[in-house]
Amino acid sequence: ADPRVTVIVCDLLAHLTHATPGFDALILDVDNGPEAFTVAANQRLYAPTGLAVMFEALRPGGVMVLWSAFRAPRFERLLRDAGFIASTTTARARGAVRKGARHTLFKAVRPLPR
After folding, report:
1. Mind listing the pLDDT tens digit for each residue in 25-54?
2. C-alpha distances in angstroms, 43 versus 8, 33, 37, 46, 60?
3. Angle between helices 73-81 and 48-57 (to 10 degrees)
4. Is the separation of the CB atoms in 33 and 27 below 8 Å?
5. What is the DSSP secondary-structure string of 28-57?
6. Cα 90 → chain centroid
7. Taking the mean position of all CA atoms in its chain, how far away is CA 114?
8. Residues 6+ away with beta carbon under 8 Å from 64
9. Which residue from 112, 113, 31, 15 is spatially nearest to 75, judged by alpha carbons?
10. Which of 7, 19, 54, 69 could disulfide-link to 32, CB 3.0 to 4.6 Å?
11. In the Cβ-directed half-sphere of 21, how many Cα atoms lie within 13 Å?
C-alpha cells in the first residue's frame, strides 16, 4: 500500500537490463542459494554476467542482499570479482530464540566513487 513501492512480477535480469539504473536495493530470495538450484535457469542470477547486471542496476552505495540456506564462499568471491563490497552474515531462523535452522545473507554493496 506504500506509494513508494512498486511490485513487478517478471524475470529479474530481463527487467534490470531494460530498467533505468539507480536502485537503492535489490533483495533476493531465490532457490536455496547460489549453489543449490530449485530451478536450473536461476543459475544465471549467480553467474558473473547476472551479477554484472545487478551491479549496474544499483546506484553507487546501493545494496543487494541475497538469502541462502547455507554459506557459499565461492559465491562471495564472485561478488567481489563483480565489483561489490561483499560480506556474509549467518542468522538463526528464529532470531532471538536462538533456535532453528541457520540462514545465510550475502550483502553486496556497490562502492561509492572515489
Report:
1. 999 888 778 887 677 788 899 999 999 999
2. 21, 10, 7, 6, 25
3. 60
4. no
5. E--TTSTTS-SSGGGHHHHSHHHHHHHHHH
6. 15
7. 24
8. 25, 26, 27, 28, 54, 58, 84, 106, 107, 108, 109, 110
9. 31
10. 69
11. 13
Q: pLDDT tens digits, residue range 88-112?
A: 998 887 766 667 788 899 999 999 9
Cα–chain-centroid distance for residue 64? 4
Residue with C-alpha cell 513508494?
A: 4
Cell of 45: 542470477
CB atoms within 10 A of CB 58: 21
Q: What b/e sequence results for 15-46 when a residue is b if at least 16 CB atoms lie within 10 Å of its CB, and e otherwise?
A: ebeeeeeebeebebebbebbeeeeeeebeebb
Whole-angstrom distance, CA of residue 94 vs CA of residue 91 = 8
Q: Which three cell numbers stand for residue 9?
A: 512480477
Cell triple for residue 67? 538469502
